[in-house]
Write a structure and sequence with these properties.
four-stranded mixed beta sheet, seven-stranded mixed beta sheet, 11 helices, globular
Length: 395
């Protein structure tokens, strides 16, 4: 672990350091994602890889090079971080992949299109808990970016794209995501920094048996992919909760980042080394006796058919999400003052798409993820109300 953190520090220092990139702590991606040859290609355009196994921060120089040439993004991030008084921000790119889509149009024309998917979550962190002497990792703000881009625009590729073309599509998608980050950062400078001693954390999302069958049979996700998806969906719920907290102004609640190797290895230990001389920084709600977990389950998933015409059929990738707040250590349902049937918050979301005639591979995965995102956004305000009640109970 120490060698991993040393590599992270060297990467961040070599490519701009904290001051040069508005206190960027690093860009992290799962090793499986970095093994994608298209991701590796865009990394090689910005830095020489030495052939060692990926460590997780290879996209850091790609990001810093894009930001250094985009004044709107760099100024927006700088203003937001000053407003939040954060110790730095870090980026998780949890999904970066593509579909190659063969297409046969009604007039007989054949060709190819490429869909690129990117999920990026940006967390602004503090290393000192509010109203406490404890060194604790907290999230003060989160910006989620979820993209699905179709290439080329306005036509089809006559031939199957080569590796260079697909890598270009990946790079363009990343640049679009970073531009959206700049817009969001400039918008969010109105948010007041709020931290407290009541600790909540989003746990990895679980699946009901029927949803597991759907993910396996309809979306083609095996066990390891479903496990990785559970963490990604937790980050999207985490971001939705942060948005709802900012809108409600609930200042008595603190959010710690989901306890994965992302927060533990890439952020908490980095900040612990930065502040130096203190006790090791605590991570996760379980480290606090009053810590709470936000547990979400995808209770139902389905693909629904809508209207149909000569071009194709309208379809919906839908999910129902149920969320409850429980004790991180005792797993007892909270808030206790609510009847049992009012402790669960739920919502449904559906990603709409057209399954075109002649397109063998509809964008089902991307639209299902959008439906999940819509569901957690819909329930987040009510969930925050439950969190406030819980915080008052355990005060």
């Amino acid at each position: 672990m120490r060698s991993f953190i040393l590599i992270l520090v060297l990467v961040v220092t070599a490519f701009g350091g904290r001051g040069a990139s508005q206190d960027l702590l690093g860009v992290f991606a799962p090793v499986e994602l970095l093994s994608n040859p298209n991701v590796e290609t865009i990394v090689r355009r910005h830095v020489e890889l030495v052939g060692a196994p990926p460590v997780g921060t290879e996209l850091t120089p790609v990001y810093t090079n894009v930001v250094s040439s985009n004044l709107q993004v760099s100024s927006g991030l700088s203003l937001l971080e000053a407003q939040l008084q954060s110790d730095g921000y870090a980026i998780l790119i949890s999904r970066f992949e593509h579909d190659l889509v063969p297409v046969q149009l009604l007039d007989g024309q054949r060709g190819f299109a490429v869909r690129v998917y990117l999920t990026m979550v940006v967390d602004f962190f503090v290393s000192r808990a509010a109203f406490s002497s404890e060194a604790r990792l907290e999230t003060v703000h989160t910006i989620p970016i979820v993209l699905g881009r179709l290439y080329p625009s306005g036509g089809l590729l006559r031939q199957e794209p080569d590796a260079q073309q697909i890598a270009d599509f990946y790079m363009d998608t990343l640049e679009v995501a970073i531009a959206q980050l700049g817009v969001s950062a400039a918008r969010d400078t109105r948010i007041e920094r709020r931290r407290a001693t009541r600790i909540f954390e989003v746990a990895p999302v679980s699946y009901s048996p029927s949803s597991t069958d759907y993910l396996e049979n309809e979306l083609g996700l095996d066990g390891s992919e479903r496990q990785a998806l559970a963490s990604e969906l937790a980050y999207l719920l985490h971001a939705a909760v942060m948005e709802a907290l900012a809108e409600s102004g609930a200042g008595q609640i603190a959010i710690v980042p989901p306890s994965t190797n992302w927060s533990i290895a890439n952020v908490s230990q980095f900040l612990d080394a930065e502040i130096g001389g203190r006790q090791e920084m605590s991570v996760g709600a379980a480290a606090d006796q009053r810590g709470m977990l936000i547990r979400a389950e995808i209770s139902r998933s389905a693909t629904l058919d809508g209207t149909e015409n000569t071009l194709g059929r309208q379809r919906y990738a839908a999910s129902e999400v149920q969320v409850r707040v429980v004790g991180a250590n005792d797993e007892m349902s909270r808030p206790r003052s609510l009847p049992e049937d009012e402790r669960v918050v739920s919502a449904r979301g559906a990603g709409a798409f057209v399954s075109l005639v002649g397109v063998e591979d509809p964008p089902l995965r991307g639209m299902w993820r959008k439906g999940y995102r819509d569901a957690v956004l819909a329930l987040s305000a009510e969930l925050v109300d439950r969190m406030v009640l819980t915080s008052e109970e355990i005060r």
